[in-house]
TrEMBL record:
Similarity remark: Belongs to the HAD-like hydrolase superfamily.
InterPro entries reported in the protein's UniProt record: HAD-like_hydrolase_domain, HAD-like_sf, HAD-SF_hydro_IA, HAD-SF_hydro_IA_REG-2-like, HAD-SF_hydro_IA_REG-2-like_cap, HAD_sf
Name the UniProt record assigns to this protein: Haloacid dehalogenase-like hydrolase domain-containing protein 3
Pfam families from the UniProt entry: Hydrolase (PF00702)
Organism: Rhinopomastus cyanomelas (Common scimitarbill)
Amino acid sequence: AMLKLRLLTWDVKDTLLRLRQPVGESYAFEAQTHGLQLQPEVLGRSFREVYGAQNHRFPNYGQGQGLSSRQWWLDVVKETFRQAGVHEDRLLTLMAENLYHDFCSASNWELLPEARETLSWCCQQGFHMGIVSNFDKRLENILARCNLQHHFDFILTSEAMGFAKPDRRIFEQALRLGGVSPEQAAHIGDDYSRDYKAAQAVGMHSFLLQAAGQGEEQNVPSKHILPTLSHLLALVEK
């Protein structure tokens, strides 16, 4: 039986949009414009390490710890290059500012297969729609540049909210903005704990976008798994 729903909430990264190329390649390309030859693999490894440490020390872009998300990201980029052997401050600052700006542009992002068609169909059906994403304030800009923002009644980022998924408060706020009870809403995302389980914890329905061979998660009934976004169409109705 189809679920009768009024609100659909969506994760963004790796659900609707994904990076066109690995982070290490974007960083290597930026370095190259300043005459530096750095290996994308090295930069990618260094980025993951630095990002992990920064996220651990200053969760959710340093919210409540006196950091702006912009400064949070500039520090990540500079430290990534430092670990790859670049130490000139002026150059580090320049590359960090360029990359912070670049990752806001549509050229760095691409839509996942069927994202645009699925969102358009949901809008035509009359669903209320919102974004619930662990992202900084650039997200609205990115969605606008990828021509997606008009599908959504609201965009909730972890930076603006002050807490990140799987915190239940970001989902509760989405339900308030959508004006619906949890059982009238479903969340769609690609992360088992931050999307699938977190939405279920507030009583929402939940779908996990999971391409074949991604490693089946524990206890996700097949009726909750979306091999592609368009599989949603057969599962929900207004």
